[in-house]
Design goal:
Number of helices: 2
Strand content: under 5%
Largest sheet: none
Order of helices and strands: HH
Shape: rod-shaped
Number of domains: 1
């Protein structure tokens, strides 16, 4: 997760870097979330193909990781947007 930046004290370059890091983090988190969902679907398919019951804990664990990842994305988004608002406010004069 990208480090938070103080928008009131950041330079333009620091803000650009922070924004890029946030976009990358959010994109990579999206890929991670897709992998978690695929892992569950693969486990379900494998269980069905082998005639065995699907273990619900596999899905529960993936859902917990998915929720945590989404919360991290939201936190980064809010933090970066707040930093950008503070930057614009501090540098608009």
């Amino acid at each position: 997760m990208p480090m938070p930046v103080d928008g009131t004290a950041a330079t333009a370059d620091q803000m650009r870097t922070t924004m890029a890091e946030a976009r990358n983090f959010i994109a990579e988190s999206g890929v991670y979330q897709e992998c978690l969902l695929k892992e569950v679907e693969d486990a379900k398919s494998q269980a069905a193909a082998s005639g065995q019951a699907f273990e619900p804990s596999v899905e529960a664990n993936a859902r917990a990781k998915l929720d945590a990842s989404k919360k991290a994305q939201e936190k980064v988004d809010v933090t970066v947007n707040n930093a950008m608002a503070a930057y614009k406010n501090a540098h608009s004069h």
